[in-house]
Specification:
- This protein is 18% helix and 41% strand.
- It is α+β, with helices and mostly antiparallel strands.
- Strands 5-6-9-10-11 form a five-stranded antiparallel beta sheet, covered by helices on one side.
Length: 161
C-alpha cells in the first residue's frame, strides 16, 4: 500500500511540474517566456544568446543586447568566438506556407542577391539585385534560417569553450 501511495505522489508531482512548464506558454527553457506575438519577442529578445554549433560546420552565435544583434562566427578548432559584428534587426510576423501557421521571427542584417538580369546595358546584361535578411531567427521553434533558407537548429544559450 505504501508503494502505491508513493507512486501516486510521484506521478502527481511529475504532472504538476509538467503543467507548470507548459501552462506558462512559450519556451520552458526561458522560465515561461512567450515568443507568440511581436510584443512578446520585443519584450524577451534583449539579453538572449542563440548558438548553432554543429561539428564540421561554421558555428554561429547571435547575442541580442541594447537593441542590436551581435553576430559571431567560429568553429570547433578555433577555441573562441572572436570579435562580433553588430547588426540591426526587425521583428515581424510571418505565415508559413505549408501550414498557414503564424510565427514571429527576428530578421537580422541584410543580404543582397542577384534577382534577375536586365538587358539595358550595351555591353551585356546588368544584374538586378534583391534584398533579404542575412539571418531569420524563430525563437519559438529554436530555428535559425540562413539567407538561402537553410534551417539550422539553434540553442538558446551560449556555448562554453
Amino acid at each position: 500500500m505504501k508503494k502505491l501511495v508513493l507512486k501516486r505522489g510521484l506521478i502527481m508531482a511529475v504532472v504538476a511540474v509538467c503543467f507548470a512548464f507548459t501552462s506558462c506558454g512559450g519556451n520552458s527553457i526561458f522560465g515561461g517566456k512567450s515568443w507568440d506575438t511581436i510584443a512578446d519577442v520585443q519584450k524577451n529578445i534583449d539579453g538572449t544568446v542563440w548558438t548553432y554549433t554543429q561539428p564540421n560546420d561554421i558555428w554561429t552565435k547571435l547575442e541580442f543586447k541594447n537593441g542590436k544583434c551581435y553576430v559571431y562566427h567560429s568553429n570547433r578548432n578555433k577555441g573562441s568566438w572572436g570579435d562580433p559584428y553588430c547588426d540591426d534587426y526587425e521583428i515581424n510576423e510571418v505565415v508559413k506556407k505549408q501550414t498557414s501557421e503564424k510565427n514571429v521571427v527576428v530578421s537580422i542584417g541584410k543580404d543582397y542577391y542577384v534577382r534577375s538580369y536586365t538587358s539595358t546595358y550595351m555591353f551585356g546584361d546588368l544584374p538586378n539585385y534583391g534584398e533579404r535578411a542575412e539571418y531569420t531567427l524563430s525563437p519559438k521553434e529554436e530555428i535559425l534560417y540562413t539567407a538561402s533558407g537553410s534551417p539550422l537548429s539553434v540553442h538558446p544559450e551560449d556555448y562554453k569553450w
